Amino acid sequence: WIVNSGAGDELSVRVNGYSRSALERIKIERSPAGRNSWADAVVVPVSELPDGQATLVWNTSSTADNAYDIRAVAECVIDGNAAVTYSDRSSGVIDRTAPKVFGQPQPADH
Predict the structure, then answer these.
(1) Whole-structure pTM over 0.70, yes or no?
(2) Quick one: how far is CA 50 from the chain centroid?
(3) How confident is the model at residue 103, as a pLDDT?
C-alpha cells in the first residue's frame, strides 16, 4: 500500500470474516516498519460495524512520511474473557513528496 499526495491523506483498509456476536471493536494499528511499536490508527466499536466486513479509513494527515507496517486487531469477549486476534502485518509507505525533475529533459528543443 502507499499513501501519496493523490490519496487525500486516507488509507482504506478492508476487514472481513468477523462476527459481531462476541466482538467489542476492530482496530487498525500502525508501527514504523519493522519496529513492533504498535499504536492505534483507527478504532471502530462493534456498534458502528456492519456484520461480516467493513472498510476502515485511516486518516494519515498527522502521520509523518515514512515506511509503516499496519495490522488489523479484533478485540472480543468470549465466555467473559478478553480475547485479541491480530492479522498479518502489511507493509507500505506514506510519501507525499512530489517527484522532482532530475537533470535536463532530452531531447531539448533549440
Answers:
(1) yes
(2) 19
(3) 80
